[in-house]
Amino acid sequence: MTQTTPISSQIDALKALQESKQQIRKELKTSQANIKYKVQGIISPAKSSRQGKTRISQLVANGFAIYEGLRLGISIYTAFRSLFGSRRRRRY
Asked: What pTM does this model have?
């Protein structure tokens, strides 16, 4: 019977650890690449369509959104002025 010496078994254990470490690093690289790809897909803006009707409808929707924003801002401004304007101050 041949018995393995403690030194050779330690070398085998170190080689096994190094191989498993390399395997884990390869798996990490592939998973990082997958995560990067998925995050880019989530965060990246939607692809613009080349169709004219869709582009026109997007422009109209953006125009309405801007108009509604301005209208809301003006109504808030007038409400603020009516509450805290110079006409409401009383002098004693």
From this structure: 0.39
